[in-house]
């Protein structure tokens, strides 16, 4: 940590003393927020406010993060979600998702989004200081039966949190092995995305067109890569998640806003990052 980073941390910590509704924020978490905002102090303040406010209010995403509860066990059974060990040449860290169980009757969007929130928490804890972050959604096995189980409200909350509150430097969002009705999926999510984020979305009919963005060697064996098989990557990451189960439960309880202590705001208070 250099002297400029330490100075910025102290500025944020001083500001936090004037925000009694917010929980205690560690120096390393402050640094992650600063990093995600390219060390813009004022933007960092807004992101911190949004992060804890949304975690408190978006109960559909953050309630009961106990990985042994039935809902999250369901999500872990149907989803392969894993960070990849090797960064891209630009220094971007990558996460990849696909359906492990393609039966639409087992698919629950609300359970998956709660699980994704925990996965992203762990991912950013480990790789939040990377130069950038890339997501890959492999649509293999995604059907109209799954599409019918998607709803707008949880999608809206998740997209709002990712864009306005998550301490992440998104550099690309890739959809691979796209389905013929991908236009319907994009119709659902496009109104929820800022222009800057929408321009990061890349659609790939085949995995080969992904390789210029994420080199093949960084990817799982199923893509011809050297990262290991999906099962190996998933099993290792899920074991890590389960080992940290109690930490997620404690974090959720200790990192909410207390609106009764929120300083009075002049005019309309916006939750969202300016």
Automatic annotation (TrEMBL):
Gene3D superfamilies found in the cross-reference section: CRAL-TRIO lipid binding domain
GO molecular function, one term: phosphatidylinositol bisphosphate binding
PANTHER family in UniProt: ALPHA-TOCOPHEROL TRANSFER PROTEIN-RELATED (PTHR10174), CRAL-TRIO DOMAIN-CONTAINING PROTEIN (PTHR10174:SF213)
Chain ranges of the CRAL-TRIO domain: 69-231
Regions that span the bilayer: none
GO terms under cellular component: membrane
Cited InterPro entries: CRAL-TRIO_dom (IPR001251), CRAL-TRIO_dom_sf (IPR036865), CRAL/TRIO_N_dom_sf (IPR036273)
Official protein name in the record: CRAL-TRIO domain-containing protein
Pfam families associated with the record: CRAL_TRIO
């Amino acid at each position: 940590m250099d002297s400029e980073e330490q100075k910025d941390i102290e500025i944020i910590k001083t500001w936090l003393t004037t925000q009694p509704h917010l929980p205690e924020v560690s120096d390393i978490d402050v640094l992650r927020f600063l990093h995600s905002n390219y060390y813009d102090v004022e933007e960092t303040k807004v992101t911190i406010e949004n992060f804890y406010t949304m975690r408190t209010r978006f109960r559909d995403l953050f309630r009961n993060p106990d990985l042994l509860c039935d809902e999250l066990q369901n999500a872990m059974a149907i989803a392969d979600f894993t960070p990849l060990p090797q960064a891209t040449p630009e220094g971007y860290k990558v996460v990849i998702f696909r359906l492990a169980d393609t039966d639409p009757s087992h698919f629950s969007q609300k359970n998956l989004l709660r699980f994704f929130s925990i996965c992203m928490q762990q991912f950013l804890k480990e790789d939040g200081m990377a130069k950038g972050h890339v997501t890959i959604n492999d649509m293999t096995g995604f059907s109209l039966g799954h599409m019918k189980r998607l709803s707008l409200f949880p999608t809206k909350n998740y997209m709002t949190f990712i864009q306005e509150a998550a301490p992440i430097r998104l550099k690309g969002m890739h959809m691979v092995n796209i389905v013929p009705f991908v236009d319907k999926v994009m119709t659902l999510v496009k109104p929820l995305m800022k222009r800057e984020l929408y321009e990061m979305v890349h659609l790939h009919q085949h995995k080969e067109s992904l390789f210029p963005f994420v080199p093949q060697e960084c990817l799982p064996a199923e893509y011809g890569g050297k990262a290991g098989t999906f099962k190996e990557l998933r099993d290792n990451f899920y074991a890590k998640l389960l080992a940290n189960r109690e930490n997620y439960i404690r974090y959720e309880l200790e990192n909410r806003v207390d609106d009764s202590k929120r300083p009075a705001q002049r005019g309309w208070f916006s939750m969202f990052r300016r």
